[in-house]
Write a structure and sequence with these properties.
The chain is α+β, with helices and mostly antiparallel strands and 131 residues long. Helix content is 30%, strand content 24%. α2 crosses α3.
Amino acid sequence: MQNSALVCNPAFEFSYLIPALTHLADKTVKLLIVERQVEEKTEIVGLVPCQDKRVYGLPFKGVEIWKHEQCFDATPLVSAECAVEAWQSICQFLIDEKYSLLSLDTVSAEAEFESVLTAAETSIKLARFQR
């Protein structure tokens, strides 16, 4: 996804992420992958390593984007071409899995990614709070 990502994050490119998952992740880390079919080809349009987390000590099922010690940014990779749709799919999956909170504390607030979050939240009627 390196050339097609909305926001470049080398830490989540496969060449860096696979070794990090192999050597630094525990069994709680999950990899959410969003794919789309284009003609005869399947392509990845979203990639989010994450893990369950009790967010702010609240009694809700929560998830946080995974960030290991050598990772300086945890901005998920989403395709620039269909970023809003990819993020909507990620959010809908988490809703279907009964997650109440998604913590984005470890994500850089790039303007491009912020606009994708806002558009996806609006379209599927999600609430966001920031501290």
